[in-house]
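Technical annex, item 7. During the second reporting period the consortium partners agreed on a shared format for inverse folding records so that results from different sites could be compared directly. Each record opens with the tokenized structure and is followed by the designed sequence. A conforming record, contributed by the partner at site C, is shown below for reference.
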């Protein structure tokens, strides 16, 4: 089997976009959420083949280019990360995806206009992206993300070893528990990544039983997806700084051989959307105001609440995300039947220990 791929990154978050070779897999579903679940249940070997060694590494994600289910969409998207339960939405992935499919010619750039609009059918719903283009290159992508809303504001939880924490919980495509770094005594810099992951996973595990959410995209799941730790920006032109701790397996503990989590390399589009929704709910940010979010490696996304909406009984907002992406490679991946390692492998010196494939 051969897969045509474009490798790209958005503010350091690596994505592998599969633009061809999936046609014979019989991927079915009435919605993109159905297709996501079908791939999870029938073709999860794509995840291990694309993201594990020898082709992948722990931080990389994959984006599958698929026919849309919504007739108003231009293209469909299923996102795959290291977890066997795939995310329904990711800001960094969709920025990479849109820039890559335009520059690779999967969707044509409208050279008659400075901005090309792409409607993407995702498991979380339709996402509209506007790409600023010049001479066949995408300079910037703005995305109108899914409606985002806060469910818990200034809520107290207890975490063993950390005591009582005041947190927010909000949805921006996934559910995030949002906590300030000053409560944890942490500085959000790359050298502290392992400690940030350890504490973030401890908080997420402790929140189970203390905080419940109604996840519309994951029926039966009532726990937060990830933890966002936020702080003051390092650059005065920006408004915040964050580290999003992403668990690699839902519900798994932290292992001594390596934390069962990674820090998002980019400023995290869905996490920033969730934080912006919480800030609007608190009256700390107004509709139309920009919020520049730094990542742990000093890259920046801009988020802006563009309008208010009601979502699942909550007052929420529709956020706009603005960022960049860059293609770093185009290649053909071979998955050969005579290759005993064709579906990937993991070794504990680089991968978190005791995690199932």
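Designed sequence (site C submission):
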């Amino acid at each position: 089997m051969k897969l045509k791929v474009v490798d790209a990154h958005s503010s350091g978050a690596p994505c592998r976009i599969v633009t061809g070779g999936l046609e014979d897999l019989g991927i079915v579903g009435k919605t993109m959420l159905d297709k996501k679940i079908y791939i999870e249940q029938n073709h999860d070997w794509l995840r291990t083949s694309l993201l594990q060694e020898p082709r992948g590494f722990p931080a990389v994600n994959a984006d599958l280019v698929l026919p849309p289910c919504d007739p108003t969409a231009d293209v469909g998207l299923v996102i795959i990360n290291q977890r066997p339960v795939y995310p329904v939405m990711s800001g960094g992935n969709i920025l990479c995806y849109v820039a890559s499919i335009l520059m690779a010619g999967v969707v044509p750039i409208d050279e008659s206009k400075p901005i090309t609009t792409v409607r993407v059918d995702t498991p979380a719903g339709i996402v509209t992206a506007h790409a600023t283009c010049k001479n066949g290159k995408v300079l910037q992508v703005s995305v109108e993300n899914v409606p985002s809303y806060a469910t818990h504001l200034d809520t107290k939880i207890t975490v063993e070893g950390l005591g009582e924490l005041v947190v927010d919980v909000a949805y921006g495509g996934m559910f995030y528990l949002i906590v300030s770094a000053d409560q944890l005594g942490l500085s959000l810099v790359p050298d502290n990544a392992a400690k940030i992951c350890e504490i973030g996973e401890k908080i997420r595990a402790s929140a189970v039983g203390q905080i419940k959410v109604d996840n519309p995209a994951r029926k039966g799941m009532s726990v937060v997806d990830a933890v966002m730790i936020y702080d003051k920006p390092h650059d005065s032109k920006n408004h915040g700084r964050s580290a999003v701790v992403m668990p690699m397996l839902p519900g798994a503990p932290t292992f001594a051989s390596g934390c069962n989590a990674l820090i998002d390399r980019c400023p995290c589009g869905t996490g920033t959307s969730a934080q912006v929704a919480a800030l609007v709910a608190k009256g700390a940010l107004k509709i139309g105001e920009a919020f520049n979010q730094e990542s742990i490696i000093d890259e920046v996304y801009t988020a802006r609440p563009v309008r208010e909406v009601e979502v699942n009984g909550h007052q929420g907002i529709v956020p706009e995300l603005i960022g960049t992406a860059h293609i770093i490679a185009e290649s053909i991946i071979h998955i050969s039947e005579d290759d005993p390692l064709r579906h990937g492998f993991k070794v504990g010196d680089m991968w978190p220990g005791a995690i199932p494939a």
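Residues 181 and 231 are 5 Å apart (CA to CA). The longest helix spans residues 193-207. All partners now use this format for quarterly exchanges.
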